[in-house]
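Dear support,

I submitted the protein below through the web form. The confirmation email said the job was done, but the results page showed an empty box. After a refresh the structure appeared. I'm attaching both so you can tell me whether what I see now is the final result or a partial one.
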Amino acid sequence: MTLRALLPALACLLPLFAAAEPGFAIRNEATLSRSATLPTLGEARVLDAGQLATRFTVDWSNEYVTQANAREALTIDAETQRVSFGFRRGIAEGVELGVDLPLLFTGGGALDSVIEGWHDAFGLPNGGREQVRQNRYLVQYVVDGETRIDEDEGANGIGDVELSAGFRLREDFAFRVLAKLPTGRSSRLHGGNAGGALWFDFDPFHGAANWFGYVSAGASYSGQTEVIGAQQQQFVALGGAAVGYRIWRPVALLVQFNGHTALHQDSGLNGLDRPGGQLSFGGRIDLAPKLQLDLGVQEDVLVSSSPDFSIHIGLRYR
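What the results page shows now:
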C-alpha cells in the first residue's frame, strides 16, 4: 500500500488525537467525603448530537487518620473500592446528558503493608498506621463524649447516583451541572443525601498536537446527613487542573490536582475542617482508536482530609 493511499485513513484519525482529552476521572474518595457533592472534573469537550461515551473506573483507596483534642476524637482506618459506570450522550448540538452509577465496597482491605512500604521507599510519614493492626476497618467520631459515628464492619452497596448535563460554550469550554440522588445508605457511610453542583471545564491546550489538560472551577451544595448533621458544610468550592503529554502516539503521561474547601465545620481536627487536595499522576494508553486505558495513583497532598493512597484504573470508549 502506498503512502498516498494511507493519507485518507491518517486524516480520519487526526481529529481523534487533536480532540480535547479529559483528565483522570478521580475525586476525593475519603470515607467522610461521600456526603459531599464532588463531581468528576476535566471533560472540556461536550459530545456531538448522537455521540455516545462510556466510562468504567475502579478507585481503590486506603486511608488512616487518628486525631484528638479536648473535645473530639476521630479514627478512620478503612479501605474502599469504588466501581463506577458512566454514560454520556449528545442529545442536541452542544448539549449532552449523562448518568454515573457507583458501587461501593468498604472494609479493612489489603493495602496497608503496600502503603507502608511505599511511604518508607519515598521517605514519607506513615502517620502512626504501622502501630495498629493491619487491614482493620474502624470509623469512629466522638464529640463531647457523644459517639456520632461508630462503624467497625464494612459494607457493600450502591452509592449516590449522579445525573449530569453539559453545555458547549466553545470547543474548548464547557459548562456542566450535576444532581446527586440519595440512593446510598447514610448509616453505612455510602452517601444517602441529595445535592447539586455546577462548574466550568476549560482545555487550555485545545488544538495542540501532543499537550492536553484542563482547568476547572465551580461549587456544590449538599443536603445534611444524619451522620455529621450540622457540622457538614453545605456549600463547597471546588476546582482542579491537569497537564498531559503524549510521549508517543498511543501513550501519554498525565499529572493532575483536584481540590475543594473544607467539607465540615465546627471542628478542630484536620480530618474534618481542612480543605482537601488530591495529587494524581500516571499514564494513558490508546488500546484502539476509540478505547483508552487510564492507570494512575493518587496521594493525599493535604494530610488527613483525603485518602493516603489510591489506585485508579479507568476504561473510556467514545
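Response: this is the final, complete result; the empty box was a page-load delay. The CA atoms of residues 27 and 126 lie 22 Å apart.
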